[in-house]
Amino acid sequence: MSKTIMTPYAQEAEKGYDFRRAMEEASRCLLCYDAPCSEGCPAGTDPAKFIRSLRFKNVWGAAETIRENNPLAGCCADVCPYDNMCEKACSRSGIDRPIHIGKLQKFLVEQEKEENMNFMKPGEPNGKRIACIGAGPSSLACARELARNGYAVTIFEANEKAGGMLTYGILPSRLPQKVVDFDIETIRQAGVQFEFNHKVDRDELERLKKEYDAVYVGVGLWKAKDVTIPGAELSGVENALSYLKAARNQDQDFKVGENVIVIGGGDVAMDCVSTAKQLGANAVIVYRRTIEEAPANMEEVAAVQKMGIPIFTQFAPEEILGENGKVTGLKAAGRDGYSSLILKADQIVFAIGQEQTDEFAGLEKEAGVFTGGDMLYGRGRTVVEAVADGKQAAADIAEYLK
Predict the structure, then answer these.
(1) For tag attachment on the chain, is the N or C end more exposed, with fewer CB atoms within 10 Å?
(2) In a domain? residue 84
(3) Is the pTM here over 0.70, yes or no?
């Protein structure tokens, strides 16, 4: 008889490699010339180089390659969709299976921390000052690259912690906070300064443009999309970002429902329903399309299914049911135009996407002002793509300031 598998909330879901297992996996590498795995990494982490170093037992050199190339190496090791990027490109796939690049990266970042390797340091000051708005992945990557090249960089962050979605929007059993904090500490070591609880609006942006030589805006997408179906105003209707943030912060006002429905089919929806389940709720997902059409990483979908969480596909929310101002259930219509679904609920979480906040809606790049990350594309993307954005922005700023 099969059994459900569930990791307690905030407990790391999977342990990484030890030295022996890491060496065994690295020994499978074909040491390709012009390795396709390195070409497949948007952030330029260069798996071929660090795996080659590890094969020859140069753990420090391998860890240094990762940290120099990827400011958020630890986070990417836990949440990067390797199967669609570097591992998908791995030449070993044509023989048996690709090298587990993500697990090797995770092992090396853990070694970096345990051995206190401290690869980062500020560059020789060049007299230029840069302001970065937001402490999400793209801003962090941009700031680290600039600081290493002698720029005095300050990040302004509205929340009390750095990391953006890494800290407030991902299930902690998938991305432990200690991993995020270590990556951010290496960015501090490069010389980046932080100002927390400092929300920058458009008026202050104008002031920063005058005080700094350049400004990078990477504020992400923090406004939940509006829910327009009947009953959306009822108590118990939540948006995904607020829900995940409150759960991670253990807010006193946060209470998980007894019966929780999550609407959506992306990674954020999977994190929301896993959070509810891990905190003791009867949790389900309702998604308007098929599993094959879901934008979520299939490994995350499989993890949700292993927890015994039902996923109702091809049903779109039609009405939120309620009594006395509180949610009591959900009515959904089938994609086939015939089927219908009514589920009991005291909490409904909409994970249907985010959009730009009003403060920075319509902001365009101009002389001295650069933008990047999710706000540039209007949709959530992967952490490694955000890192690539930040690195490119840093190069663009350096070129502009010449």
Answers:
(1) N
(2) yes
(3) yes
